[in-house]
Amino acid sequence: MIIEGVENRTISVTEAEYLRLGHSRVFRSIVSAGIASLVITRRASWGIKTAGYVGQVLLEGDVRLRLREKIPGALAALLAWSSPEDFREELAKSPLGKDGADAILDAYARRLLSHIAEYVRHGRQKEYQRQQLVTSSPRGKIAVRGTMRLISRGIAGRVVVANSRLSANLMANRLLSLGLRAVDDYYRTANPDSPHLSKARYLAPLFEDVDGFSVERMHWLARARAFDEALADRRTSGDLRDALTYCRAFVLHLGQWPEDMVDGYLPRAFFLNLSTLFEEAVRLALATVVADNCSVKHGRSQGVHIFKDNGRHFEAEPDIVVRRSEQAVLVADVKYKTLDDSDGLPGHDDVYQLLAHAAAFKSQTALLIYPGELAWLGRLGLSHGGIEVFFCTVRPAHLFADLSSAATRLHLRTPKAEMVAPSAGPPLAGESLEQGTVVLAGRAEMQS
Questions:
Q1: Cα separation of 205 and 199, whole Å?
Q2: What residues contact residue 425 under an 8 Å CB cut-off, 6+ apart?
Q3: What contacts 24+ positions apart, CB below 8 Å, involve 346-354?
Q4: Cα dihedral 342, 345, 348, 349 in deg (nearest 10)
Q5: Given CA atoms 235, 237, 239, 242 in this order, what sign does their dihedral have?
Q6: Fewer CB in a 10 Å sphere around the end CB: N or C, the chain?
Q7: What is the pTM of this model?
Q8: Residue 42 burial by CB count (10 A; 0-12/13-18/19+): exposed, middle or buried?
Q9: pLDDT tens for residues 253-267?
């Protein structure tokens, strides 16, 4: 049985299904994670209220709860732009890796390969490891106990030597080696002609000096603990951390699993927060279309407060701040929700919050950004504080084109920015610009 619904909506169910979900241990874990909850409303006597997450999970008795995006194709489009850092995982069966996960698998595999390539280019992590060798020409400290064992067994002319050797055979590198084999398996079965398969096979020999098979033989839970320990290591940072994060999701949650896992150890349910994905995708896409003398950053931790005489509380944290010569020229908030159908205008709370942020950053222009099936830009008006407020809707599958148009009207673009037909997202590090991608004059690299 499949219970299917849309994120940020209420799903109607029968009374029997409602009671069944209420007694489900797995569904209770989904409720604890903030993904969904049981409700009783006037419209839907029995229902499930969902949050802004997309994914699916198997409950007891082969009941499948599947949550999809409200804008068709939004998940694949947003994954191409953003790195999903905000997700929820629970110990529960999840068929996501087997059923309908091509967009997620492809995005995670491409970004895993990109970060591994950058990690290898800057040098892999290594450390000195002690080892013992049996040799006839000793180099290093002679291990007396091991040498005596050789003599007792009648082996003469050889000694056991203990020395230290700089080795890349660390757990982090072993896990990445496993990730490369998982990516190879995925593309070999899903798309043998993919250039990413060639890239995975190009990178694989660089990890031949690590014992990746020891990780492959691990129990799934032991492998999960190995990822947790590797990510908790203080030396894990930069591209290595990003590579391990995507590798963890791909290997533990989203990859192709053997059939014997159905009744044994099982991957966890993996749900993606489209609200977080949309916000990050808009911020990254906007950063590619503004003028070269503009910077696009999150408003968090910039030390700007709403009150002048109270610097300890109420920090202004807009989703996007565009600066030109250190001056904030645009403050924007990204809202992953649909506009009111009655008047098509933003809600009062959204406008009040935006005005407070814009005033704190001393920006004369403010913008609210919503997802939609049509792209357009509207003007709300000029506030009493002299802030001109706009709002727009953008199509998730055409973020570059829609944000380019909005940035042009808000005087944030330069004529030298060349726009080709927008693709599903920016090219990754190490990839060439193919037909249909975005090319910005004066920018050799694009942020992945």
A1: 11
A2: 77, 79, 80, 81, 281
A3: 346/370, 346/380, 346/391, 351/380, 351/389, 354/318, 354/389
A4: 110
A5: positive
A6: N
A7: 0.66
A8: exposed
A9: 665 444 444 444 445
